[in-house]
Amino acid sequence: MHSEMEPAQPTPVSVLIITYNEEANIAGCLESVRWAGEVFVVDSLSSDRTQEIASRMGAKVYPHPFEGYARQRNWALENLPFSHDWVLMLDADERITAPLAEQIRRVASRPDSGCAGYYLNRRFYFLGRWLRHGGLSPSWILRLFRRHAARCENRGVNEHMLLTGAAGRLDEAFHHRDSRPLSAWIERHKVYADLEAEQYFSERFRGGCEASIPARLWGTQPERKRWIKLHVWNRFPLLLRPFLLFFRNYFLKGGFLDGKPGFIYHVLWSFWYPFLIDARIFEMQRGAGAGVSSLVGQGGVKVAPGSTTEITHSTQGQ
To answer: Is 98:5 a contact under the CB 8 Å cutoff?
Structure first.
C-alpha cells in the first residue's frame, strides 16, 4: 500500500538538494520527495548528521567542497549521474506538497511538454505562519527544468537559473519551512549582507556578472525584480533604502496583516538586513573595511557554505 506522496511508480525526476549542516531540515525535505525516481544530495562537507540522515533515507550523497552557491549547483548539474531528463532543485528547508508532486508527475511523464522548465510558487513560512502579504506571495522560482537546458548564473548572492527554451508555470505551491532557530537565520544573513555589498559594487561599477538573467521591466517576476534592483534600488541613497523598503513591504504591501510573525520578519528582513547591507557598503566606501574592499575589487568575499541565497520576495534581493 502506497502513501499519497509515494505513487506505485516513481516519477521520472531527479531531485537535487545542496546542503551544509542541515540535520534539522533534511529529513522533512527527503520525506516530501519519496515519489521521485532518484534524489541527490550534494553536501558541502557538513560537520553534523546531514550526510548520515540523507544516506539512511535513500538519497545518493555526494560530498563536495563548497566553491560558492552558483558553482556548487553547476558542478552538480555537470557531474552527477542523473538517470532522468527532468531535475527538481530544492533546498533542505523546502517541502513538495502532494498536489505539486502530482503536477510534476504529469509534466515529467509526457514525452514533450513544450517547455524546457517550469516556475514553481514558493509559499514562505516564518515562525510557524504562512506569510501571505508584504510582497512575499506569490514568489515564482525556476526549480523544475530539463537538465541540459539550465545552468545557474554566476552570482555571489540571489542566483537564478538560466534556461534555454520556453518556461511554464505549475499552479500548486511548495513550502519553505526552516526548522532551525531564528539565530541561525540571523547568522546566515550576516554572511549574505557581505555578498550583497560585494554585488552592489559589481553591479554599479563593474557591469555585474557575465552570464545573468535579463533585467526586463515587463519580463518574468525575477527579471522584473532584477530590473528594479539595477535601475531603481541601487540608485536610492544608502541608509535611506531600508526605511523605504520597510514602509513598502509592511504598510503598502500589507505585511502588517500577517500578525506578530509578519512584524518580526519585516523588521528583520525589510529593515535590519538591508540596513546591514548599506552599512557594509558605507564601510567599504569609507575604507574602514579595507580587507573586504580589496576582496570586492578581486570579486572574492569568502562565505560559508549553505543552501541557495536565492531570495525572490524583496526588491533588494535580486
So the answer is: yes
The dihedrals phi and psi of 143, each to the nearest 5 degrees, come to -125, -15
Whether 5 shows a pLDDT value over 80: the answer reads no
Cell representation of residue 83: 538517470
CB 73 within 8 A of CB 159: yes
CA 156, CA 36: separation in Å to the nearest integer? Answer: 30
| Angstrom distance (rounded) from CA 269 to CA 186 | 10
Beta-carbon contacts of residue 96 (< 8 Å; ≥ 6 apart): 32, 33, 88, 90, 104, 174
Cβ atoms of residues 161 and 153 within 8 Å: yes
Report the chain's terminal Cα–Cα distance, integer Å.
44
pLDDT, one tens digit per residue, over 73-121 is 999 999 999 999 999 999 999 999 999 999 999 999 998 889 999 999 9
**Strand 36-43 to 117-126 pairing:** unpaired
Are the CB atoms for 20 and 305 separated by under 8 Å? yes
The torsion region of residue 141 among left (phi > 0), alpha (psi -120 to 50) and beta comes to beta
Cis bond upstream, residue 222 (ω within 30):
no
- The CA distance from 300 to 48, in Å, is 27
Tens digit of pLDDT for each residue in 192-221? 999 999 999 988 887 665 567 888 899 889
State the chain's mean pLDDT as an integer: 89
Residue 221's Cβ-count burial label (10 Å; 0-12, 13-18, 19+) is: middle
Q: Give the predicted TM-score (pTM) of the model.
A: 0.89
